[in-house]
Amino acid sequence: MNAPCTFSIKNGGISQYFDVSYLDIVRNGDTSVLKQNQKTPFNQIIKKYEPTPNFLNDVNRIKFKHDLHRQIMSKRGKNLKELGTLSNNQKKSCKKVCENIINTVIFSRERNSDYKTGQYVVFVTLTLPSKQQHSDKQIKRLQTRYIENLQKTYGVKYYVWKAEAQKNGNIHFHLLLDKWIHHTVHRKLWNKQLDKLGYLDSFQSKHGHRNPNTTDVKSLKKDDKGRKIKNPTSYIVKYMTKFEFGKRPILGKLWGCSDEAKQLDYPKYQEGQPLFDHVVHLINSKKLKQVLKEDFFSFFSGRSYEVISTKYKKLWSDIKDFYKLQNGNIEPRTISQKEFIRLKNYIPEQTPTIPKIEILQQPTFEQVKLNYGNPAFWTNNLK
Questions:
Q1: 333 within a domain of the structure (yes/no)
Q2: Which stretches of sequence are listed as region Disordered (predicted)?
Q3: 47: Cβ–Cβ under 8 A, 6 or more apart, which residues?
Q4: Residue 314: CA count within 13 A, CB half-sphere
């Protein structure tokens, strides 16, 4: 294909795509997928919704209206996602942020650095101590204040959160942070926010104290069953993008991340770069399985990081430097160039003289006539 090729290296494979702007083709875009063209009357119902004391009944009523609305829109040719679920694009974005946060923190940490002072990947769960009495939107505001406190006081830079529902109907949050903070601090900060809506008062009336265990903090070394996590990135991505049947939907926004996390990207290698041939050699080695092939896009699935770290040392080192550069641990590479210094006793060289060219004399008429015949013949002047 006569278009520049780019490889994007991910933890679970490699994406290959071509820049079609170099090709003289006509692309028929689908405007129906645009956000402004997907708005329906149901969106206005959600915006005007005001919660009642029985919040779970409100959720069931809204879900019933949304299911009817999906049936109507499906007859018009539009398939809407279920209420409280992530779309395919949202899953891709959430997966990208989670992968890049983990890779950035892991590759940026020194081998013998202290996890308490530097960056360290932590998984936090926030819950409610009693039955939910407020809307999801009101609880999310508490979570926003909690995250702002972590950023301003404890220097949290990268984070991503996901809202889910428990079996009892209460909303809870999963957070991926880049900073180790003691679990008692997390509990204190989250309970402080819950106290604004009176959840600590209802808990105290039943248990006699105001310090409920509403947070769960753990590293990415072992799962819930105590088994060692071999691939933290895959574990977190599945945890953050999973869908559990039989639970009530979350109204409103389902996930979010920091602005710094949005700017993180996968390492990319374009055609013409020094390590581009290394990626081509990896693709041709058949160590990754091609699971998708289209005109301008392909995806090769497999344990790309495991293969690169063992077989392609230069490429692996460049990937780690890429994440360190994104995190600000190293400076961008610059081409070393010495400063030009003129010598004190410098005498410029004399410009070379151009030798004179001898011009031959123009031949006479008799000479031309002798060599080439009568020149009048060539000028059509013969009489």
A1: no
A2: 205-225
A3: none
A4: 7
- In the chain, the number of structural domains is 2
Residues contacting residue 70 through CB under 8 Å, at least 6 positions apart: 79, 80, 82
pLDDT digits (tens, 9 = 90+) for 318-332: 999 999 999 887 777
User: How would you class 121 by CB atoms within 10 Å of its CB: exposed for 0-12, middle for 13-18, buried for 19 or more?
Assistant: buried
Same domain, 185 and 203: yes
Exposure of 175 by Cβ count < 10 A (0-12 exposed, 13-18 middle, 19+ buried)? buried
Distances (CA, A) of 381 to 151, 177, 366, 374, 378: 100, 99, 17, 10, 8
Whether 94 and 226 map to the same domain: the answer is: yes
The pTM of the full predicted model, rounded to 2 decimals, is 0.79
Q: State which residues form the domain around 98.
A: 88-262
pLDDT tens-place string over residues 217-230:
988 887 777 777 77
Query: Is residue 172 domain-shared with residue 321, that is, in the same domain?
Result: no
Domain CATH number, residue 126: 3.30.70.1910
